Amino acid sequence: MVRLSDEAEVQRKLKKASQLLLLQRHRSPGVKGWELKRALGKEYLKIIDVLRSELDRLGLEVKIVYDGSGKKAQEASSEDTDRARFFVVMKGPLSQSEMVSSGWRIDDVAVLAATIAYINSRQGKAPRKQVEDLLREKFPRWKVDMNLDRFVRRGYLLESEDDMLYIGWRTRAEIDQKTLTNLILATPTGQDSQVK
After folding, report:
1. Is the Cβ–Cβ distance between 17 and 52 less than 8 Å?
2. Which of 65, 86, 121, 164 could form a disulfide bond with 169, CB atoms 3.0-4.6 angstroms apart?
3. How many other C-beta atoms are found inside a 10 Å radius of the C-beta of residue 27?
4. What is the third-level CATH fold of 7-92?
5. How confident is the model at residue 196 (pLDDT cuts 50, 70, 90)?
6. Whole-angstrom Cα distance, residue 24 to residue 10?
7. Spatial distance between the Cα atoms of 20 and 24, rounded to a whole number of angstroms
8. pTM of the model
């Protein structure tokens, strides 16, 4: 538990932390560690730990994504943590109805899933042109272009100056890539006996 001078102060800081994490102020969700440190004080990580236990009861969790380094919390220095992005996500997968009510169209989800799977199959990077060619076999050109641009803007993909696509910070935080890969590779029920 957090050791601060006063229970009222802890509650005030919990309220402030939840407001910072849940209310989107920028184009990207969440806040940087240095913003939390400025708003909550040096012991902001202890406040976040308390908030984690509160959010857990609601089926939510605080994710921390370190800038492009792939570091885990145990390996991160305080400087890394100050630069990291903190935000709240739902625990576990969304159902189709939850996905739709969150503003995602099922075909947009399919474009993102196919893109992530393709990039992962290419050791974490792929030329944008190859991704576009793959997606245009199933989706119209305008939808492919619009979605790839949107995924880059929202942080699901990163794009380098030489038009290479990489997995973005938001994909690493919000999407269980191992489960996605397993679902894509899984054989549909009923076809096991037909394949020899």
Report:
1. no
2. 65
3. 8
4. Aspartate Aminotransferase, domain 1 (3.90.1150)
5. very low
6. 23
7. 8
8. 0.68
